[in-house]
Hints:
Elements: E1 8-14, E2 20-24, E3 31-32, E4 38-39, H1 47-55, E5 63-66, E6 69-76, E7 81-87, E8 102-108, H2 111-117, E9 123-127, E10 130-133, H3 142-145
Amino acid sequence: MRHSTGTVGVxxxxxxxxxxxxxxxxxxxxxxxxxxxxxxxxxxxSQADLVRSLxxxxxxxxxxxxxxxxxxxxxxxxxxxxxxxxxxxxxLDASHLFASNSTDMPQSIDVAEVLDAFPNVRVLTFDGKTLxxxxxxxxxxxxxxxxxxxxx
Length: 152
């Protein structure tokens, strides 16, 4: 399984202080076990670690390993890009060089794809410095973000 990268993210609400297991400005060394559970050596995490994971990101991504959370929304930022499987156009005479005719790669998407993929979840973005609901264009306060994640 590939780590997620791109400009579409999941807004989560940690259910307890122990929900956050590791934080890193780059790869934290996590792996997926045979049951599909993301594993990592748990860390003592400081506020400085959280800030560093956002301000000193590695060349590709940072990593937060969380468990015991509730999804509160989806966040999108222009230009929208996700990492997903794409078909390769491999010439017939080169097909023996490739194990597969698809690969995971960054791809551009539009906000309609996000709205279709998450019809009952709030999708948010920034309009200037204001967090807004993409569907309704209504501003969302940070405090209200954690009250409900379901689109009425």
